[in-house]
Specification:
Blueprint (H helix, E strand, L loop, with lengths): L1 H23 L12 H60 L7 H4 L9 H19 L4 H7 L1
Length: about 150
């Protein structure tokens, strides 16, 4: 049994060595191709145009924001002027009203209540009409009895 165990241990050691070698093996990398001078010049030109386009877009955004800000400020100024005009008109109206010493009771009149006589009269008329209808009412049974 000792031989089998020794053989087993040897196999394990060999497997571990192979695994270590495989892990340490790096794949071969191809050397990078060198760019030609024409490619390098084209790349530089593309970078310059890209940077210029970025600058132009930033400037356009700034201009649009400034225009919107100016429009907003203009509307605020217009609203403020309108409010100020209203205040001045109210002030002028208050100044035009003379200061009287008349008591408030004379200025404010209390509403007068109307008498409820009309309703009572209407009810009486309706009651009289009902009484007339009751007097002329003949029950249906009596009519049938006579026939």
């Amino acid at each position: 049994m000792e031989n089998k165990e020794d053989g087993h241990e040897v196999v394990e050691e060999v497997v571990e060595e192979v695994v270590e070698k495989v892990e340490h093996v790096e794949p071969k990398q191809k050397p990078k191709r060198q760019k030609t001078e024409a490619q390098i010049r084209a790349w530089e030109k593309a970078r310059e145009t890209r940077l210029n386009n970025i600058k132009k877009r930033k400037e356009q955004v700034k201009e649009i924001e400034e225009e919107e800000k100016e429009k907003y400020e203009d509307t605020i100024v217009k609203k403020a002027v309108a409010i100020k005009k209203r205040q001045l008109k109210k002030k002028q109206e208050l100044e035009e009203i003379p200061d009287d010493d008349t008591p408030i009771e004379q200025i404010v009149k209390k509403p007068v209540k109307k008498p409820a006589v009309k309703r009572v009269v209407q009810r009486k008329v309706q009651d009289e009409e009902f009484e007339e209808q009751v007097d002329t009412y003949v029950p249906i049974r009596r009519i049938i009895e006579f026939i």
